[in-house]
Write a structure and sequence with these properties.
Blueprint: E1 8-11, E2 16-19, E3 27-32, H1 43-61, E4 65-70, H2 77-86, H3 90-107, E5 113-115, H4 123-135, E6 139-142, E7 145-148, E8 185-190, E9 205-207, H5 209-221, E10 224-231, H6 235-248, E11 253-260, E12 263-265, E13 268-269, H7 280-284, H8 288-295, H9 297-306, E14 313-314, H10 317-337, H11 346-350, H12 359-370, H13 375-382
Parallel strand pairs: 3-4, 3-10, 4-5, 10-11, 12-14
Antiparallel strand pairs: 1-2, 6-7, 7-8, 8-9, 12-13
């Protein structure tokens, strides 16, 4: 096992690298936000699991036992809207896209995830959690549901660095008037006719987006755990609101926050509001099935590993082709060092003992991974 503090991790909350010391010696609890399962997967859904799989693998290599939780959001407005538009039951929609997502993780050799909790399996504890927040004076019933009172949360905005006044445009669900503050966010949304719902003390409805992750992390890892990960776009409002709920509920919540970079195309950020995404041909380039079928899972995983997890990843065809070339070179170089033929499979090569010539690169690889999981520098070390 690595000595305590030998791994340095950049904590988004403190905006600094810090020595990683787990809550329990030799054990790491890590929660990474998963997809909302209402449509085909794109590479943005898979970046986080692949990158944090590398994090979990390194913790394991350094002697830690890792519990890696990657949730499935199977209750959400987008799912309901898809169901209403198509007439397909929401359960069928979420089952199909959950299976698709997990299949892609398998193809990408994401092997360290231990739990894939689904929101729909945690309704009862979510109701209890919300009731606890109401009993503590942190939440209140409005006309259309139960809301969290952000003005009662000390330090609200500390993760994203935003002031409450700047947060009014970040709401995921439109809200009626009557809130204590426009930035208050929904914990329990009362159902409209025709929407799926569950009984609660406040009326039939469904949980809000943010409470889902707070409860699933609490139930799988405890009210205080080591690492919470996710995409950089989740800092606000999602992760900010998770912190508020978790701290108000009595826990320290996540001690370290890690955020991975997002998708680029030829150096320009790609997002939901990108006008280029209106072109089906352009948007199709980022679909998981296109990337994996066209380039192969090994190339896509290698591309994600080539940089640092906190930096954006470029998925233009030229960048993918360069990654494929680099992976082939590494494969051949490793085969030559191990005195194996060019046709030797990568798994077979990795099973062989390392020759003395790799002692130096191995030390550099270890130093890079201990330095905030710098996979790009670690790969560079292998090229000598």
């Amino acid at each position: 096992m690595s000595s305590p503090g030998s791994i340095q991790v950049y904590n988004t909350l403190t905006r600094a690298k810090q020595a990683f010391v787990p809550l329990v010696a030799g054990q790491v609890g890590m929660y990474v936000c998963g997809p909302t399962v209402y449509d085909d997967c794109h590479i943005g859904h898979l970046m986080g699991p692949v990158l944090f799989d590398a994090v979990a693998r390194w913790f394991a290599a350094r002697g830690h036992q890792v519990r890696f939780v990657n949730n499935i959001t199977d209750i959400d407005d987008k799912i309901i809207n898809r169901s209403l538009a198509t007439g397909e039951p929401w359960q069928a929609i979420t089952a199909r896209y959950t299976a698709q997502y997990l299949g892609y993780l398998q193809r990408l050799h994401v092997v360290t995830v231990t739990d894939n909790p689904k929101c729909s399996a945690y309704i009862a504890p979510m109701i209890t959690y919300i009731k606890d927040l109401m009993d503590g004076g942190r939440a209140y019933l409005a006309a259309d549901g139960v809301y969290y009172d952000v003005l009662l949360q000390q330090g609200y905005g500390k993760l994203s660095g935003r002031r409450v006044e700047d947060m009014l445009s970040g709401a995921r669900i439109e809200r009626d008037a009557g809130l204590h503050h426009p930035a208050d966010f929904v914990l329990w949304k009362l159902a409209k006719p025709g929407e799926p719902s569950w009984p609660s003390p406040w009326g039939a409805g469904r949980p809000g987006w943010h409470i889902e992750c707070s409860v699933m992390s609490d139930r799988t890892l405890g009210d205080t755990f080591d690492i919470h990960g996710g995409g950089d776009d989740l800092k606000f409002p999602h992760h900010e609101n998770e912190i508020a709920q978790g701290e108000a509920h009595g826990g320290g919540y996540a001690r370290c926050w890690m955020h991975n970079g997002l998708i680029q195309y030829e150096g320009v950020k790609v997002g939901k509001s990108d006008p280029r995404m209106k072109d089906p041909a352009f948007a199709g380039q980022f679909k998981a099935d296109h990337l994996l079928d066209t380039y192969g899972a090994a190339t896509i995983r290698f591309l994600l590993m080539q940089g640092h997890y906190r930096r954006p990843n470029d998925f233009a065809p030229g960048a993918i082709a360069a990654a494929r070339t680099a992976l082939g070179k590494l494969h051949r170089q490793l085969g030559a060092l191990l005195d194996q033929p060019d046709g030797a499979g990568l798994d077979a090569l990795l099973a062989l003992p390392l020759p003395a010539e790799l002692a130096g690169p191995r030390a550099a690889f270890t130093a890079a991974m201990d330095d905030d999981f710098n996979t790009g520098a670690a790969i560079a070390a292998l090229f000598g």
